[in-house]
Amino acid sequence: MKFLILFFLCFYTNQVLAQTVYTTRAPESPNDKRQDYTIKLLELALEKTKSKYGSYKLEFAPLGSNIKRSLADARQGKYENFFVRNSVSLKNVDQMAAVPFPVDLGIVGYRVAFTSEGTKALLNSVKNLEDLKKFNIVQGFGWLDTKILKSHDLQVESVSSYEGMFKMVANGRVDLFTRGVNELLEEWIAHQHIPNLAYDESFTLYYPLPRFFFTAKENKEAAQRIHEGLIIAYEDGSLIELWEKSYGPSITFANLNSRRYFEIDNPFLEGLDDSYKKYIYRPLE
Questions:
Q1: 16-106+211-252+272-279 under CATH 3.40.190.10, yes or no
Q2: Above pLDDT 70, what percent of the chain?
Q3: How much is the average pLDDT of 46-67?
Q4: Which CATH number fits domain 107-206: 3.60.15.10, 2.30.110.10, 3.40.50.2300, 3.40.190.10?
Q5: Model confidence over 233-272: pLDDT tens digits?
Q6: Which residues form the signal peptide (predicted)?
């Protein structure tokens, strides 16, 4: 009996030690729900490949790091197999190991806006892109959105505080805080306590914005595992099920079909392998 107990203890210990550690971002604040889907999707990809690659343990980087800091940590391999979801650009693809699958199926490229009660009424006059250029937009520090919007002569200000952007737009320091249509509902629920905060219901701005998982270049096998897991999950329907459960309510809430629609291009995708496009979801087509 003692021998059997010792055997199973050794077996269990070896199994634990054999787990491969993967790391991803923690939320930036208690109200930050943006990582919920990403974490579940990463777990799904790891589960789908467990029989081939073995057990894993998913850990989190320290709470509060913004995307620019997280990308720097990922490039430098600061944490073991650190995967960060970020908008695709040739610069990121060149500097890091990329998992060439659009994590959120491109839905985040459909942009809707938080605003103030006063500015909301003025947005009804926005009939085209030229009208939109009269309003200033806030985006997060290090977000590719800033460069995309500025390339089309839109007014953009970047700040580092995720929570601060909701307060800035409610206080009228900026006019618009644009968000992915998949993010609107949860963020509205989480921030209704902010006085004078509102969300626009008049327009949608679209630009292609695929987001991949990125990690340090030396983590090629780990990146291959995540890629294989995402493809398996997409093909067996489990990824779509997770996506619809996570984002479907917000997409319905935003009511895209009732909005004026403006589209601009994303110049930072030029030259990128476009094989990811077959996974992009276009709700208005």
A1: yes
A2: 94
A3: 92
A4: 3.40.190.10
A5: 999 999 999 999 999 999 999 999 999 999 999 999 998 9
A6: 1-18
CA dist list (Å): 173 to 64, 113, 156, 215:
24, 15, 12, 36
Q: How far apart are CA 148 and CA 154, in angstroms?
A: 9
d(CA 155, CA 151): 10
Residue recorded with tokens 């919007």: 149
Q: Which of 3-17, 70-84, 153-167, 222-236 has the lowest mean pLDDT?
A: 3-17
